[in-house]
Amino acid sequence: MLSKIFPNTQHATKAPTKNSDLLTSWRKIVLPAVSAPFSMRSVHAACRLFKEAGAEELRFLYVVEVPRSVALKASMPVEDGMAEDALGAAVSAAAAFGVHAHTEVLHVREATDGIAKFVASQNFDLIVLGARADGLRGLPLDVCRDLYQKVECEVILNYVGAEA
Fold first, then answer.
1. C-alpha distances in Å from residue 128, one per residue of 26, 50, 72, 80
2. What is the per-residue pLDDT for 22?
3. What's the distance, CA 58 to chain centroid?
4. Using one digit for the tens of pLDDT, what is the confidence trace for 70-116?
5. Residue 101 and residue 150: Cα distance in Å, rounded?
6. pLDDT, mean of residues 42-56
7. Virtual CA dihedral for 140, 145, 150, 153, nearest 10 degrees?
8. In the chain, what is the straight-line distance between the N-terminal and C-terminal CA atoms, in Å?
9. In the β-sheet with 28-34, what is the strand arrangement from edge to edge?
10. What is the pTM of this model?
11. In this structure, are residues 90 and 99 in contact, taking their beta carbons and an 8 Å threshold?
């Protein structure tokens, strides 16, 4: 299935010698969403990974794509309200796991480039991508594919093909 979503991509890294080596290499974890609520399955996965790895930071990043016809710094109350709601729901879900998560709203022209630059500038070790086939939550599949190809850190994809 991943080959259908991510054709011709290879992120080859040195294989960890133990399971714990993989987990302990993840100090900073980020979970982005673009103009839609976070996939709660991905929030739960990120929280479990955060706890298992003993990571230092979990950040929920809500990305607002700003049209070119609007100034990048312009007030976008509807979109910022959606961001606040989505981030609040993700933080509440993380709290249920006993995890304190940081939040950020990022206004960019293009989601993939904005997320990739943010991840690089903040030195994240792991990006958790959440997507659903129905597109109601999480990231669009094209954004997941493009991020998988652009980011330098490790990537975990939590994809739900169809809701039960």
1. 11, 11, 26, 22
2. 57
3. 10
4. 999 999 999 999 999 999 999 999 999 999 999 999 999 999 999 99
5. 25
6. 95
7. 90
8. 18
9. 102-108, 57-65, 28-34, 126-132, 154-160
10. 0.83
11. no
Tokens (6 digits) for 55: 């990571």
Tokens for 163, please give them: 């809701």
Domains present along the chain, CATH in parentheses:
25-160 (3.40.50.620)
Query: Can you read off the two tokens belonging to residue 100?
Result: 């304190």
Please state, in angstroms and rounded to a whole number, the distance separating the CA atoms of residues 103 and 106. 10
Tokens of 107: 């206004």
**Contact 35/63 with Cβ under 8 angstroms?**
yes
